[in-house]
Write a structure and sequence with these properties.
Helices cover 23% and strands 29% of the residues. By secondary structure, the protein is an alpha/beta fold. The strands form two sheets. A seven-stranded mixed sheet has the order 6-5-4-3-2-1-14. It has a seven-stranded mixed sheet with strand order 7-8-9-10-11-12-13, with helices on one face. The radius of gyration is 17 Å and the shape is globular. The protein starts with a strand and ends with a strand.
Amino acid sequence: MKITFFGSSHGVPEPNRKCSSIMLECGGKNYIIDMGCDITPELVTRGLTPNDISAVFITHKHGDHVDGLLPFVDLCSWYYTKADPYIMIPDMDILEALKSWFSLVEHLRDNIRFALIEEGLIYDDGNIRVHAMHTGHLKDSKSYAFMVEGEGKKAIFTGDIEHRVGAATDYARYVTEDGTDLVVAEGAHIDPLTYIEPLKRHLPKRFILNHYNGEWEEKAQRLINEMKNELKIVLATDGLEVRF
């Protein structure tokens, strides 16, 4: 497996850091987790197009995780007409918003596939399996973390989790055994030092702090230093590629 960070910032872009989006490569197929930025330029730069995306998984409907879906679906509708991504969304309001926009400017291709995420196994194409797990991030809508299994590996993408005090509770629900191959955890809504206790309880092989903001940057460095003898922690940056 390999992941590439197209966007690693939090609620707003920062210099050299766009809003959240990750590409996962496994078994010769490509998948997108969140689309807070326009990913097509990133794909084309790497010799890919929307035709090469098998599925898209959106953690929740905040703009910094979903705004890039509009230009992506736009290009799939009229230019990349062979694109056939399976787009999994946490709230059908997202699809209705897309339909409203396209009724003004373009035609939304009828056979683009959308599906509503529910907790549990949501995707299995014989190459990867994706389980969705509720997070406490939103109170008026659904928000999810994803566990992805493929090539004998397991990765967890927390999405956005409970604000402040809930970090340890949310995280501990997802990482329930030692040796998880990769955890990509957010660092915008909670103090990164909150991860120390659950990390010590269940230690993954790799840990990447993503979606972090300047408010917590000093504490992110303290987290890295605190865990340095047990686990190498990496801060995500745009363009970062990790094989695991």
